[in-house]
Amino acid sequence: MQKQTVAPFAVFDDYRPTMIIAVAVRWLLLFAWFAINNYRVELDPTWLAFNLMGISLGGLNAYVTWRIVQRQPVSWHHALAMSIADLSVITAALFIRDGFQNEFYVFYYPALLGFSLLFPGRPSFGVLTIVIALYSIMAFTISPTLDTDSEQEKLLFVRLITMVGMVAAGTLITDWERSRRREAVAAERQRAQENLELQQKAQESELAAVEERSRISREIHDGVAQSIYMLSLQLETCVDLAQEERQELRERLEKLVSLSKESLLEVRHYIFDLKPYLAGEKGLVSMVENQVSEFNKVTGVPAVLNTKGEEHPMPVPVSTSIYRVTQEALANIFKHAQATQVNILLEFQGSGVQLTVKDNGQGFDPKAPASGNGLRNMRQRAEELGGSFSLDSVSGQGTQVLINLPCQS
Fold first, then answer.
1. Alpha-carbon distance 122 to 114, whole Å?
2. pLDDT tens per residue across span 184-210
């Protein structure tokens, strides 16, 4: 089974894009850290401690950079470790040297922003609360302490508000970015669903086409092929009888004429199955007239078409069903009814169309088992389109077929 791939924008716990930015920014901050700590300063224990802190951060940043370059997974554990290390080192540096007076506090801003981008919402504001508390404690306890009689209180307030702003900005940016990604995921899923539906429809259409071809092949084998086979056998017999000048030759030839007409009707029926009714080429009345005219020419049985109401456009499936039911009914009449007159009524109604085919043949018992699929096919065509089908036949009194179809598309 083929493994389904997931689009990168659909993975919400992928920290790689943000970590790529974070490690690049951290390299710049480390450069500034070492520059501030080593430019014109006295070599003392704090100098060594600050450099060791920077080296530890550099080592951790180098490890994450290596994982990114090697295309290895970068999880939230790596992101959390980097962020906590940043904030811990900055806080430790402030505790070691001068507290509020140490200019290293500026490193809090990118560190808090990076943490809020990786862990937006409650986690980032929770860490912010801890940082604000620690920084405020340093301001009032570590010598030199905050001068409450000067502008330093306002400066502390500005620094704390800036920290809050960094976290809020990171959270808003992440929420906006994830909202856009969710929209992209929803759109991608919608397109995937539409593509799946199209594939299913295509498969259903292909399956229906295969089934239709199988049905036509089966009917040709059971109908036309058998009729032609019988026709060939009868012709061979007639040749033998003609040589012997037998009296039954005329009777056999008459049967052959009837059989050939029946085969011709069936062949035309299958041809239409392979080339269905096309909208816009001809109206329904014209199509049925051609069918009735062909029936008259082939069979010699008089058939009359009458119409009622004004013809109006209708869906192709409805027109096709009317045409095919007419064809099926006339074929059954010729095969079984032994009729001498056929009347067809095509009535256009406001909400539908009704077809009535009536003959004066020998009729049959509708409750008796049917020998073919003609009646079942006609009923099925009507029911598939939400219409109705009825059959009325009495032995010796002919048969009437009635189909009523709605015209809604």
1. 15
2. 888 888 888 888 888 888 888 777 777
User: Distance (Å, rounded) from C-alpha 16 to C-alpha 9?
Assistant: 12
**Structure confidence by residue, pLDDT tens digits, 206-247:** 777 777 776 666 666 556 656 666 666 666 677 666 666 666
Q: What is the mean pLDDT of the chain?
A: 79
Closest CA to 345 of 330, 353, 355, 333: 355
pLDDT tens per residue, range 288-343:
888 888 788 777 788 999 999 888 888 888 888 888 888 888 888 888 888 889 99
Sorted by sequence, the CB contacts under 8 Å of residue 119 that are 6+ apart come out as 76, 79, 80, 83, 127
Q: What is the pTM of this model?
A: 0.46
Of these ranges, 32-41, 80-89, 199-208, the one predicted with the greatest mean pLDDT is 80-89
Length of the chain: 409
3-class DSSP string for the chain: CCCCCCCHHHCCCCCHHHHHHHHHHHHHHHHHHHHHHHCCCCCCHHHHHHHHHHHHHHHHHHHHHHHHHCCCCCCHHHHHHHHHHHHHHHHHHHHHCCHHHCHHHHHHHHHHHHHHHHCCCHHHHHHHHHHHHHHHHHHHHCCCCCCCCCCHHHHHHHHHHHHHHHHHHHHHHHHHHHHHHHHHHHHHHHHHHHHHHHHHHHHHHHHHHHHHHHHHHHHHHHHHHHHHHHHHHHHHHHHHHHHHCCCCHHHHHHHHHHHHHHHHHHHHHHHHHHCCCCCCCCCHHHHHHHHHHHHHHHHCCCEEEEEECCCCCCCHHHHHHHHHHHHHHHHHHHHHHCCCCEEEEEEECCCEEEEEEEECCCCCCCCCCCCCCHHHHHHHHHHHCCCEEEEEECCCCCEEEEEEEECCC
Instruction: Report how far apart, in Å, the C-alpha atoms of 151 and of each of 35, 134, 157, 221 are.
Output: 29, 21, 10, 104
Structure tokens at 240: 């033998």
CB 93 within 8 A of CB 104: yes
Strand arrangement of the beta sheet that strand 303-308 belongs to: 303-308, 342-348, 352-359, 399-406, 388-393
Q: Is 23 exposed, middle or buried (0-12, 13-18, 19+ CB in 10 A)?
A: buried
CA 282 to chain centre: 36
pLDDT of residue 278 exceeding 50, the answer is: no
